[in-house]
């Protein structure tokens, strides 16, 4: 819903101030419903209006719109943010087509965010045990962070985790099931096979990720994102020689 962009808008404004030259910033956002697009657009436009040196544009597209319609402007720096998007596609071919289109835009950076898991391993017992451990960790995090009768917790359990568990137990092992969960190494190979290569993240990115996690985890009494020996909580840590950041729960 666009919550990741205000910090970038603020950083661009600081850069524009330093160079004494306004910057243009255009976002093309995808959402499932028109209401989500309108809400996101209004929120971002309202925020961007407080920065006089940022010329802001927002273009909304419904999920399923053709990526081929995206056009790069002259002298435009392109950054693409794929958050849980590739795993929502119906088959490997559509993932390949999407990555091919993304690569054709010649972006300066592509950020890929996906959940990790091994629930797609062949065999019911293997899949069941992997799912059991995965969702046990999620419920452990809820136990430490939200009261048992909390409306927020009940909503998460019913509308999100409950539906996911039902799908995991009921799904047939088709091609789409292998996109729902995958390890970082699998996604890395897919990206590299389409011409992308990893880059080392700056230390600032990790520090900011930990800060944002702390800001969103104020209600969790056991949270300590910087302490390796604490009893439990969410963690943000670097992987793949600093080319990836992961968030996980340690009980």
UniProtKB/TrEMBL annotation:
Keyword set, alphabetical order: Transcription, Transcription regulation
Region named SAW: 170-251
Superkingdom to which the source organism belongs: Eukaryota
InterPro entries recorded: TF_GRAS
Pfam families membership: GRAS (PF03514)
Record-stated family: Belongs to the GRAS family.
Record-given protein name: Uncharacterized protein
Organism of this sequence: Opuntia streptacantha (Prickly pear cactus)
């Amino acid at each position: 819903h666009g919550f990741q962009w205000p910090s970038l808008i603020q950083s661009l404004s600081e850069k524009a101030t330093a160079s004494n030259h306004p910057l243009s910033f255009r976002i093309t956002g995808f959402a499932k419903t028109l209401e989500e697009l309108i809400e996101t657009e209004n929120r971002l436009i309202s925020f961007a209006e407080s920065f006089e040196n940022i010329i802001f544009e927002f273009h909304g597209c419904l999920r399923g719109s053709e990526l081929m319609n995206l056009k790069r402007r002259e002298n435009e720096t392109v950054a693409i943010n794929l958050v849980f998007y590739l795993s929502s596609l119906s088959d490997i071919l559509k993932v390949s087509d999407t990555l091919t289109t993304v690569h054709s835009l010649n972006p300066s950076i592509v950020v890929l965010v996906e959940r990790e898991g091994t629930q797609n391993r062949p065999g019911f017992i293997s899949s069941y045990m992997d799912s059991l451990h995965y969702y046990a960790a999620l419920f452990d995090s809820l136990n430490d962070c939200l009261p048992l009768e909390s409306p927020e917790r009940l909503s998460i359990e019913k509308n999100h985790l409950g539906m996911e568990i039902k799908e995991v137990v009921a799904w047939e092992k088709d091609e789409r099931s292998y996109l729902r969960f995958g390890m970082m190494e699998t996604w890395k190979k897919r990206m590299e096979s389409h011409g992308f290569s990893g880059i080392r993240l700056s230390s600032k990115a990790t520090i900011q990720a930990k800060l944002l996690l702390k800001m969103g985890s104020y209600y969790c009494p056991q949270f300590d994102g910087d302490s390796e020996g604490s009893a439990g909580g969410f963690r943000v840590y670097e992987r793949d020689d600093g080319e990836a950041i992961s968030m996980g729960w340690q009980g």
